[in-house]
Design a protein that fits this description.
The chain contains three helices and no strands. By secondary structure, it is mainly α. The chain folds into two domains: about 1-35, no CATH class; about 45-75. It is elongated, with a radius of gyration of 22 Å.
Length: about 90
């Protein structure tokens, strides 16, 4: 979740326990060089919740497909070759 530096400064001042100027100074720099899985800014809380739920669902589906493919390929769910029963 991102907000404009001015909004961050307003929130900082409203809290009363922050060092003045830190929010505006860091509003952009804290995101530099970072890749996010989901970015949301101006949507309603309900829209953001739906976006997060959709992202989590998609990740679970992807993980289930990868696990199924590994099992089908003869590897365990973690991707390592299965131990033969003779080796046990």
């Amino acid at each position: 979740m991102r907000c404009a530096p001015a909004v961050a400064a307003e929130r900082e001042a409203a809290r009363g326990d922050r060092v003045a100027g830190m929010a505006a100074a860091q509003a952009e720099s804290v995101h530099r060089g970072v890749t996010f899985h989901l970015v949301s800014s101006r949507a309603s809380a309900a829209d953001r919740a739906r976006a997060v739920a959709a992202r989590v669902t998609a990740a679970r589906v992807t993980a289930a497909r990868v696990t199924a493919a590994r099992v089908t390929a003869g590897t365990g769910a973690a991707g390592y070759p299965r131990s033969s029963s003779a080796a046990r």
